[in-house]
Protein backbone atom coordinates (compact mmCIF):
# COMPACT_ATOMS: atom_id res chain seq x y z
CA UNK A 1 0.00 0.00 0.00
CA UNK A 2 1.10 3.55 -0.71
CA UNK A 3 -0.48 6.26 1.40
CA UNK A 4 0.28 9.22 3.64
CA UNK A 5 -0.85 9.60 7.21
CA UNK A 6 -1.84 12.40 9.56
CA UNK A 7 -2.17 11.84 13.30
CA UNK A 8 -4.02 14.58 15.14
CA UNK A 9 -2.45 14.83 18.61
CA UNK A 10 -2.83 18.49 19.49
CA UNK A 11 -5.76 18.21 21.91
CA UNK A 12 -5.59 18.70 25.65
CA UNK A 13 -7.44 15.50 26.59
CA UNK A 14 -9.03 17.15 29.59
CA UNK A 15 -11.77 14.51 30.04
CA UNK A 16 -9.11 11.79 30.29
CA UNK A 17 -7.08 13.72 32.85
CA UNK A 18 -4.97 15.72 30.38
CA UNK A 19 -2.34 15.00 27.68
CA UNK A 20 -3.61 11.49 26.95
CA UNK A 21 -1.50 11.22 23.80
CA UNK A 22 1.66 11.19 25.93
CA UNK A 23 0.43 8.77 28.60
CA UNK A 24 1.94 5.30 28.64
CA UNK A 25 -0.33 2.48 27.47
CA UNK A 26 0.96 -1.07 27.34
CA UNK A 27 4.53 0.10 27.86
CA UNK A 28 4.65 2.90 25.26
CA UNK A 29 3.07 6.32 24.68
CA UNK A 30 -0.47 6.35 23.29
CA UNK A 31 0.71 8.33 20.24
CA UNK A 32 3.33 5.73 19.35
CA UNK A 33 0.75 2.96 18.93
CA UNK A 34 -0.94 4.76 16.02
CA UNK A 35 2.33 5.93 14.47
CA UNK A 36 3.72 2.40 14.45
CA UNK A 37 0.50 0.97 12.98
CA UNK A 38 0.47 3.44 10.10
CA UNK A 39 4.19 3.15 9.34
CA UNK A 40 4.19 -0.65 9.55
CA UNK A 41 1.20 -0.74 7.15
CA UNK A 42 3.28 1.16 4.58
CA UNK A 43 2.78 4.89 5.12
CA UNK A 44 5.22 6.83 2.92
CA UNK A 45 5.13 9.78 5.32
CA UNK A 46 3.48 10.73 8.56
CA UNK A 47 2.54 14.20 9.77
CA UNK A 48 2.07 14.26 13.54
CA UNK A 49 0.08 17.35 14.50
CA UNK A 50 0.92 18.54 18.02
CA UNK A 51 0.28 21.50 20.29
CA UNK A 52 2.81 24.38 20.38
CA UNK A 53 5.75 23.51 22.61
CA UNK A 54 5.22 19.72 22.41
CA UNK A 55 8.03 19.05 19.93
CA UNK A 56 10.31 17.48 22.54
CA UNK A 57 7.58 15.19 23.83
CA UNK A 58 6.81 14.04 20.29
CA UNK A 59 10.47 13.34 19.59
CA UNK A 60 10.74 11.27 22.76
CA UNK A 61 7.48 9.39 22.12
CA UNK A 62 8.42 8.47 18.54
CA UNK A 63 12.14 7.90 19.03
CA UNK A 64 13.56 5.40 16.52
CA UNK A 65 10.71 5.78 14.01
CA UNK A 66 11.36 7.24 10.56
CA UNK A 67 9.34 9.05 7.89
CA UNK A 68 7.48 11.29 10.33
CA UNK A 69 7.56 14.99 11.08
CA UNK A 70 6.02 17.12 13.80
CA UNK A 71 3.57 19.83 12.74
CA UNK A 72 2.13 22.47 15.05
CA UNK A 73 -1.67 22.41 14.97
CA UNK A 74 -4.36 24.97 15.68
CA UNK A 75 -6.94 25.69 18.34
CA UNK A 76 -9.50 23.43 16.65
CA UNK A 77 -9.25 20.01 15.01
CA UNK A 78 -10.05 21.39 11.54
CA UNK A 79 -7.09 23.78 11.79
CA UNK A 80 -4.85 20.91 12.85
CA UNK A 81 -5.94 18.75 9.91
CA UNK A 82 -5.27 21.59 7.50
CA UNK A 83 -1.79 22.00 9.01
CA UNK A 84 -1.14 18.28 8.58
CA UNK A 85 -2.27 18.33 4.95
CA UNK A 86 -0.04 21.31 4.19
CA UNK A 87 2.97 19.43 5.58
CA UNK A 88 2.58 16.42 3.29
CA UNK A 89 4.81 15.98 0.26
CA UNK A 90 2.65 13.42 -1.56
CA UNK A 91 0.94 13.68 -4.94
CA UNK A 92 -2.59 15.14 -5.23
CA UNK A 93 -4.21 11.72 -5.78
CA UNK A 94 -2.35 9.97 -2.93
CA UNK A 95 -4.62 8.39 -0.28
CA UNK A 96 -4.33 10.22 3.04
CA UNK A 97 -5.39 8.58 6.32
CA UNK A 98 -6.37 11.08 9.02
CA UNK A 99 -6.31 9.50 12.47
CA UNK A 100 -6.91 10.59 16.04
CA UNK A 101 -4.09 9.76 18.45
CA UNK A 102 -6.75 8.89 21.04
CA UNK A 103 -7.56 5.68 19.11
CA UNK A 104 -4.32 3.74 19.61
CA UNK A 105 -5.37 0.16 18.83
CA UNK A 106 -5.34 0.54 15.04
CA UNK A 107 -4.64 -2.53 12.94
CA UNK A 108 -3.60 -3.15 9.36
CA UNK A 109 -6.90 -4.79 8.36
CA UNK A 110 -8.83 -1.55 8.95
CA UNK A 111 -6.24 0.41 6.96
CA UNK A 112 -6.52 -2.02 4.05
CA UNK A 113 -10.32 -1.81 4.02
CA UNK A 114 -10.23 1.99 3.97
CA UNK A 115 -7.79 2.25 1.08
CA UNK A 116 -9.64 -0.41 -0.93
CA UNK A 117 -12.87 1.59 -0.55
CA UNK A 118 -11.34 4.61 -2.32
CA UNK A 119 -11.65 2.76 -5.62
CA UNK A 120 -15.37 3.58 -5.64
CA UNK A 121 -15.65 6.64 -3.36
CA UNK A 122 -14.13 10.03 -2.57
CA UNK A 123 -13.55 9.03 1.03
CA UNK A 124 -14.08 6.24 3.52
CA UNK A 125 -14.49 5.89 7.25
CA UNK A 126 -14.66 2.85 9.55
CA UNK A 127 -17.97 2.35 11.32
CA UNK A 128 -19.64 -0.02 13.75
CA UNK A 129 -23.38 -0.69 14.00
CA UNK A 130 -25.19 0.73 17.00
CA UNK A 131 -25.88 -2.37 19.10
CA UNK A 132 -27.51 -0.80 22.17
CA UNK A 133 -31.02 0.60 22.16
CA UNK A 134 -31.05 4.40 22.24
CA UNK A 135 -33.14 6.70 24.39
CA UNK A 136 -33.74 10.42 24.58
CA UNK A 137 -33.70 11.90 28.07
CA UNK A 138 -34.87 15.10 29.67
CA UNK A 139 -34.60 16.14 33.32
CA UNK A 140 -33.37 12.69 34.27
CA UNK A 141 -36.23 10.71 32.76
CA UNK A 142 -36.76 8.93 29.46
CA UNK A 143 -38.25 11.16 26.78
CA UNK A 144 -38.47 8.94 23.73
CA UNK A 145 -36.77 6.24 21.67
CA UNK A 146 -34.23 6.76 18.88
CA UNK A 147 -34.47 4.17 16.11
CA UNK A 148 -31.13 2.48 15.41
CA UNK A 149 -31.80 1.64 11.76
CA UNK A 150 -29.28 3.41 9.57
CA UNK A 151 -27.17 4.61 12.51
CA UNK A 152 -23.46 3.88 12.73
CA UNK A 153 -20.67 4.66 15.21
CA UNK A 154 -17.91 6.51 13.34
CA UNK A 155 -14.24 5.82 13.99
CA UNK A 156 -10.90 6.94 12.58
CA UNK A 157 -8.72 6.85 10.54
CA UNK A 158 -10.79 8.44 7.79
CA UNK A 159 -9.36 8.23 4.31
CA UNK A 160 -9.46 10.51 1.27
CA UNK A 161 -7.48 11.39 -1.82
CA UNK A 162 -5.37 14.39 -0.91
CA UNK A 163 -6.93 16.67 -3.52
CA UNK A 164 -10.46 15.73 -2.41
CA UNK A 165 -9.94 16.52 1.27
CA UNK A 166 -7.99 19.70 0.56
CA UNK A 167 -10.69 21.02 -1.77
CA UNK A 168 -13.38 20.18 0.77
CA UNK A 169 -11.60 22.01 3.57
CA UNK A 170 -10.92 24.99 1.31
CA UNK A 171 -14.69 25.29 0.76
CA UNK A 172 -15.67 24.73 4.39
CA UNK A 173 -17.28 27.64 6.26
CA UNK A 174 -15.17 28.09 9.39
CA UNK A 175 -18.13 29.55 11.23
CA UNK A 176 -19.20 25.91 11.70
CA UNK A 177 -17.11 23.29 13.49
CA UNK A 178 -17.12 19.94 11.63
CA UNK A 179 -17.58 16.80 13.68
CA UNK A 180 -15.00 14.98 11.56
CA UNK A 181 -13.32 15.01 8.15
CA UNK A 182 -15.94 12.81 6.49
CA UNK A 183 -18.57 15.48 7.13
CA UNK A 184 -16.38 18.06 5.38
CA UNK A 185 -16.03 15.90 2.25
CA UNK A 186 -19.69 14.87 2.19
CA UNK A 187 -20.81 18.50 2.52
CA UNK A 188 -18.59 19.34 -0.46
CA UNK A 189 -20.51 16.80 -2.55
CA UNK A 190 -18.17 13.86 -2.08
CA UNK A 191 -19.28 10.25 -1.71
CA UNK A 192 -17.98 8.76 1.54
CA UNK A 193 -18.05 4.98 1.87
CA UNK A 194 -18.72 3.16 5.13
CA UNK A 195 -16.39 0.22 5.81
CA UNK A 196 -16.39 -2.20 8.74
CA UNK A 197 -14.47 -0.75 11.69
CA UNK A 198 -13.02 -2.57 14.68
CA UNK A 199 -14.42 -2.74 18.21
CA UNK A 200 -10.87 -2.55 19.57
CA UNK A 201 -10.40 0.81 17.87
CA UNK A 202 -11.94 2.47 20.91
CA UNK A 203 -11.42 6.13 21.71
CA UNK A 204 -9.64 6.99 24.95
CA UNK A 205 -11.92 9.68 26.32
CA UNK A 206 -12.28 9.04 30.05
CA UNK A 207 -9.82 7.67 32.66
CA UNK A 208 -11.63 4.33 32.78
CA UNK A 209 -11.00 3.87 29.04
CA UNK A 210 -7.29 3.43 29.76
CA UNK A 211 -8.04 0.55 32.12
CA UNK A 212 -10.12 -1.13 29.40
CA UNK A 213 -7.38 -0.63 26.79
CA UNK A 214 -4.76 -2.04 29.18
CA UNK A 215 -6.97 -5.08 29.72
CA UNK A 216 -7.26 -5.61 25.96
CA UNK A 217 -3.51 -5.36 25.50
CA UNK A 218 -2.76 -7.70 28.38
CA UNK A 219 -4.74 -10.51 26.81
CA UNK A 220 -3.03 -12.40 23.99
CA UNK A 221 -5.34 -12.55 21.00
CA UNK A 222 -5.97 -15.71 19.08
CA UNK A 223 -8.39 -16.03 16.21
CA UNK A 224 -10.99 -18.61 15.39
CA UNK A 225 -11.80 -19.31 11.75
CA UNK A 226 -15.49 -19.69 11.01
CA UNK A 227 -17.32 -20.58 7.80
CA UNK A 228 -20.92 -19.63 7.05
CA UNK A 229 -23.18 -20.56 4.17
CA UNK A 230 -26.21 -18.83 2.68
CA UNK A 231 -28.90 -19.73 0.19
CA UNK A 232 -31.62 -17.61 -1.41
CA UNK A 233 -34.29 -18.00 -4.08
CA UNK A 234 -36.49 -15.47 -5.90
CA UNK A 235 -39.05 -16.07 -8.63
CA UNK A 236 -39.07 -14.32 -11.98
CA UNK A 237 -41.68 -11.72 -12.86
CA UNK A 238 -42.28 -8.93 -15.39
CA UNK A 239 -39.48 -6.39 -15.65
CA UNK A 240 -36.61 -5.04 -17.72
CA UNK A 241 -33.57 -5.71 -15.51
CA UNK A 242 -32.42 -7.67 -12.48
CA UNK A 243 -30.11 -6.89 -9.57
CA UNK A 244 -27.44 -9.55 -9.03
CA UNK A 245 -24.50 -9.16 -6.63
CA UNK A 246 -24.98 -5.41 -6.51
CA UNK A 247 -25.05 -4.93 -10.31
CA UNK A 248 -28.10 -4.10 -12.41
CA UNK A 249 -28.18 -6.55 -15.32
CA UNK A 250 -30.43 -5.90 -18.36
CA UNK A 251 -32.93 -8.72 -18.77
CA UNK A 252 -36.45 -9.33 -20.04
CA UNK A 253 -37.61 -10.20 -16.51
CA UNK A 254 -36.87 -9.19 -12.94
CA UNK A 255 -36.73 -11.02 -9.63
CA UNK A 256 -39.68 -10.52 -7.30
CA UNK A 257 -39.07 -9.74 -3.65
CA UNK A 258 -39.80 -7.31 -0.84
CA UNK A 259 -36.45 -5.55 -1.33
CA UNK A 260 -34.59 -5.36 -4.64
CA UNK A 261 -34.53 -9.21 -4.62
CA UNK A 262 -30.75 -9.42 -5.13
CA UNK A 263 -30.42 -13.12 -4.41
CA UNK A 264 -26.63 -13.02 -4.60
CA UNK A 265 -26.25 -10.39 -1.89
CA UNK A 266 -29.00 -12.00 0.19
CA UNK A 267 -27.20 -15.33 0.17
CA UNK A 268 -23.90 -13.64 1.00
CA UNK A 269 -25.50 -11.70 3.86
CA UNK A 270 -26.82 -14.95 5.29
CA UNK A 271 -23.39 -16.55 4.92
CA UNK A 272 -21.81 -13.80 7.05
CA UNK A 273 -24.60 -13.97 9.62
CA UNK A 274 -24.24 -17.74 9.68
CA UNK A 275 -20.52 -17.56 10.33
CA UNK A 276 -21.28 -15.33 13.31
CA UNK A 277 -24.23 -17.49 14.47
CA UNK A 278 -26.43 -14.38 14.41
CA UNK A 279 -29.56 -15.67 12.71
CA UNK A 280 -30.53 -14.91 9.14
CA UNK A 281 -31.40 -11.94 6.99
CA UNK A 282 -35.09 -12.18 7.90
CA UNK A 283 -34.27 -11.74 11.58
CA UNK A 284 -32.46 -8.47 10.92
CA UNK A 285 -34.58 -7.17 8.03
CA UNK A 286 -38.09 -8.68 8.28
CA UNK A 287 -39.91 -8.81 4.93
CA UNK A 288 -43.06 -7.77 6.79
CA UNK A 289 -41.50 -4.39 7.63
CA UNK A 290 -42.53 -1.81 4.99
CA UNK A 291 -39.31 0.19 5.49
CA UNK A 292 -37.40 -2.48 3.56
CA UNK A 293 -39.74 -2.51 0.55
CA UNK A 294 -37.59 -1.97 -2.54
CA UNK A 295 -34.47 -1.46 -0.41
CA UNK A 296 -31.04 -1.92 -1.96
CA UNK A 297 -29.52 -5.13 -0.66
CA UNK A 298 -26.06 -3.65 -0.25
CA UNK A 299 -27.19 -2.18 3.09
CA UNK A 300 -28.05 -5.70 4.31
CA UNK A 301 -24.55 -6.87 3.42
CA UNK A 302 -22.93 -3.84 5.08
CA UNK A 303 -24.92 -4.53 8.23
CA UNK A 304 -23.67 -8.12 8.38
CA UNK A 305 -20.09 -6.99 7.73
CA UNK A 306 -20.47 -4.42 10.50
CA UNK A 307 -21.49 -7.16 12.94
CA UNK A 308 -18.31 -9.06 12.09
CA UNK A 309 -16.26 -5.91 12.70
CA UNK A 310 -18.07 -5.24 15.98
CA UNK A 311 -16.75 -8.55 17.26
CA UNK A 312 -13.25 -7.48 16.27
CA UNK A 313 -13.29 -9.94 13.39
CA UNK A 314 -12.41 -9.75 9.74
CA UNK A 315 -13.78 -11.27 6.56
CA UNK A 316 -11.19 -13.47 4.85
CA UNK A 317 -12.93 -14.40 1.60
CA UNK A 318 -16.37 -14.89 0.06
CA UNK A 319 -17.70 -17.09 -2.74
CA UNK A 320 -21.08 -16.65 -4.46
CA UNK A 321 -22.68 -19.02 -6.97
CA UNK A 322 -25.67 -17.91 -9.07
CA UNK A 323 -27.89 -20.70 -10.41
CA UNK A 324 -30.03 -19.86 -13.44
CA UNK A 325 -30.48 -20.51 -17.14
CA UNK A 326 -30.68 -16.79 -17.95
CA UNK A 327 -29.38 -14.11 -17.92
CA UNK A 328 -25.79 -14.90 -18.77
CA UNK A 329 -23.69 -13.96 -15.75
CA UNK A 330 -20.20 -14.20 -17.20
CA UNK A 331 -20.24 -10.79 -18.99
CA UNK A 332 -21.06 -9.13 -15.64
CA UNK A 333 -19.03 -11.33 -13.30
CA UNK A 334 -16.03 -9.00 -13.00
CA UNK A 335 -18.26 -6.03 -12.17
CA UNK A 336 -20.03 -8.15 -9.53
CA UNK A 337 -16.73 -9.15 -7.95
CA UNK A 338 -15.58 -5.53 -7.88
CA UNK A 339 -18.87 -4.39 -6.34
CA UNK A 340 -18.72 -6.97 -3.54
CA UNK A 341 -15.03 -6.25 -2.96
CA UNK A 342 -15.87 -2.56 -2.60
CA UNK A 343 -18.75 -3.19 -0.20
CA UNK A 344 -16.72 -5.50 2.01
CA UNK A 345 -13.42 -3.66 1.50
CA UNK A 346 -11.75 -6.89 0.40
CA UNK A 347 -9.02 -7.38 -2.19
CA UNK A 348 -10.45 -8.61 -5.47
CA UNK A 349 -8.72 -11.97 -5.20
CA UNK A 350 -10.72 -12.66 -2.00
CA UNK A 351 -14.05 -12.39 -3.86
CA UNK A 352 -15.39 -15.11 -6.14
CA UNK A 353 -18.58 -14.99 -8.20
CA UNK A 354 -19.57 -18.02 -10.28
CA UNK A 355 -22.63 -19.12 -12.23
CA UNK A 356 -24.06 -22.42 -13.31
CA UNK A 357 -27.21 -23.88 -14.80
CA UNK A 358 -29.19 -26.98 -13.81
CA UNK A 359 -29.27 -28.30 -17.38
CA UNK A 360 -32.97 -27.50 -17.67
CA UNK A 361 -33.91 -29.37 -14.50
CA UNK A 362 -35.92 -28.04 -11.59
CA UNK A 363 -37.49 -24.60 -11.07
CA UNK A 364 -34.33 -22.80 -12.25
CA UNK A 365 -34.17 -25.00 -15.33
CA UNK A 366 -37.78 -24.23 -16.14
CA UNK A 367 -37.07 -20.50 -15.81
CA UNK A 368 -39.38 -20.05 -12.83
CA UNK A 369 -36.77 -18.50 -10.57
CA UNK A 370 -33.12 -17.91 -9.72
CA UNK A 371 -31.16 -19.37 -6.83
CA UNK A 372 -27.94 -18.24 -5.18
CA UNK A 373 -25.67 -19.83 -2.65
CA UNK A 374 -22.71 -18.31 -0.85
CA UNK A 375 -19.89 -19.22 1.48
CA UNK A 376 -17.99 -16.77 3.69
CA UNK A 377 -14.90 -17.28 5.83
CA UNK A 378 -14.31 -14.99 8.78
CA UNK A 379 -11.81 -14.79 11.62
CA UNK A 380 -12.91 -13.57 15.03
CA UNK A 381 -10.84 -13.04 18.18
CA UNK A 382 -11.46 -15.43 21.06
CA UNK A 383 -10.19 -15.41 24.61
CA UNK A 384 -6.90 -17.16 25.18
Tell me what you see in this structure.
This protein is of the alpha/beta class and 384 residues long. The chain folds into two domains: 3-218, Spore Coat Polysaccharide Biosynthesis Protein SpsA, Chain A; 222-382, 2-C-methyl-D-erythritol 2,4-cyclodiphosphate synthase (60s Ribosomal Protein L30, Chain: A, 2-Layer Sandwich). The protein has twelve helices and 19 strands. Strands 1, 4, 5, 6, 7, 10, 11 and 12 form an eight-stranded mixed sheet that branches. The two termini are 31 Å apart.
- Helix percent reads 25-40%
Q: How many angstroms does the end-to-end distance come to?
A: 31 Å
* Major β-sheet profile: 8 strands, mixed
Structural class: alpha/beta
Remind me, CATH topology of the largest domain? Spore Coat Polysaccharide Biosynthesis Protein SpsA, Chain A
Entry summary:
The protein is α/β, with parallel strands linked by helices and 384 residues long.
Key traits:
384 residues, alpha/beta, Spore Coat Polysaccharide Biosynthesis Protein SpsA, Chain A, 60s Ribosomal Protein L30, Chain: A, 2 domains, eight-stranded mixed beta sheet, five-stranded mixed beta sheet, 12 helices, 19 strands, 31% strand
